[in-house]
Each structure stands twice: as structure tokens, then as C-alpha cells.
Amino acid sequence: MPSTRPFLITFSGIDGAGKTTQIERLSARLSAQGYRVASFAFWDQVAVLPGLRTGFSSAAGRGTYVAAAGTAKNNKHIRTWYLSAVRSALYAFDVARLRYLSRRLHTREYDVVIFDRYIYDQLATLYSQHPLSQAYIRFLLRLAPRPDLAFVLDASPMEAFLRKPEYPLKFMYSYRDIFLRLHEMIPHLVVVPPSGVDETEAAIARRLSQYAGLCLLQKDTESLNAAPVDVS
Questions:
Q1: Which of 63, 96, 213, 224 has the largest CB neighbor count within 10 A?
Q2: Residue 144, helix vs strand vs coil
Q3: CB 119 within 8 A of CB 150
Q4: pTM, rounded to two decimals
């Protein structure tokens, strides 16, 4: 674990991929092992002016797709130049808020902090092949605190849509593709392939175990390097 701040884990992916379920399971697993775990929702603890953003995106999405579950809160499927401009500015404030929050987190309070969504999910709404878009995304990524483990839960867009029909199915396919493309820009993202709930939980636990083992190995190596050498 990091020495001065909690171990940071993030979950990203399309709506309906099972992030909430896996966060709950991982939190329970770590808590049972004696760790102090906190779960943060990006929209609640980080996003700047969430009410204004919801109202603005709802106004922009008026007359567009409305799912059986109601109007989508963020209207991620709507991409206009003015929405992209507003999102770009707000995401910069989100990154600043993340940096502030990360400085306040300390191991005196938590051992592990798990984020339901992260700045990666926000940037997915800006992603395009345009050089300016990619340059701005890379700029924000350099400023954003890097998680110790960042998961992207991959899922079948059709199955995710059936579980959570907030957005048009066509958008779900393109949204999934964007997350896979983000992995090319953010190599430390760990993409968990589509699978059952138990299999996905096991894959996450294995990755966490591998990372913890690597950290222990690094600490052992550092200890050996720091140990005095007897040259007599």
C-alpha cells in the first residue's frame, strides 16, 4: 500500500457493465480482510456543479432518446459542439477537484478508496480521432491523479442495454468501442473481459493479488538495496 495515501482503485465502463456489483463485492472482500474501505461515486464526490450539468444536458437532449427507465441523466449520447465545449471546461475543473481530493485522502482514515467511475469515463464523452480532442485528453490525463489500479469492465452492449436501458443501443456499441480505444491512450487501464459476475470478481481479485505481490517484491528489493554491505 502507498505510505501516505490510501490505495486507489477505479472502475469504469459502459452503463450496465456491472460496476456497482463488483465494487460492492470488492469492498466486502477487502473489509473482511481488515482493510478500511471507502467507496466514492465520481458524480457525487468529484463532479463540479452536478445539478447544473444535469439540467443543461437534459435541455440539450430534449426531444431525443428517452429510455423506459426515464431520461438519461447525463445524455452522453448527445454530441454537439456546444456540449463538447461545456464538457471540456467542466472536466478541467473535475481534474482540479480530483487533485484536491487526493491530497486530502490519508491512510489515517482509509486503507483503500474505490471510485465508481473516474475521469476516464468523463473523457470518453469527448473522445474523437481529431488531434485537438486527443491532445486535450492527454493534457487532462497528465494532470489527473493516477490510480493504483484502474479497471474497465468490458461488457456486451446488448446485455448491458437490457440491464440498464438509459441510452440508445447504437450509442452503447460506440461507447464500448471508445473505452477500448482509451486503453490505447491509457496503458495502465486494466480491461476485464466480458464474463459472469463471479468470474469477473475472481479476475479482479487475481489482478489485485498480483499487484500486491509486485508491491511486496519491490519493497523487498528496496530493503535489500538499502541494507548495509559488509565488505570486511
A1: 96
A2: coil
A3: no
A4: 0.84
Residues 106-123: pLDDT tens digits?
878 899 999 999 999 999
Q: In this structure, what are the phi and psi dihedrals at residue 69, rounded to the nearest 5 degrees?
A: -80, -5
The rounded distance, in Å, linking the Cα atoms of 5 and 129 is 36
Nearest to 73 by CA among 91, 93, 90, 53: 53
**Among 54-68, 119-133, 140-154, 166-180, where is mean pLDDT lowest?**
54-68
DSSP codes, 43-79? IIII-SSHHHHHHHHHHHTTTS--BTTBS-SS-TT--
- The distance from CA 104 to its chain's CA centroid, rounded to whole angstroms, is 19
Q: Do residues 16 and 163 lie in contact, with contact meaning Cβ atoms separated by under 8 Å?
A: yes
Q: Which of 48, 45, 151 is nearest to 104 (CA)?
A: 45
Identify residue 219 by its one-letter amino acid code: K
The pLDDT assigned to 57 comes to 63
Q: Which residues face 151 on adjacent strands? A: 11, 190
Q: Which domains does the chain have, with CATH numbers?
A: 7-226 (3.40.50.300)
- Percent of the chain exceeding pLDDT 90 equals 54
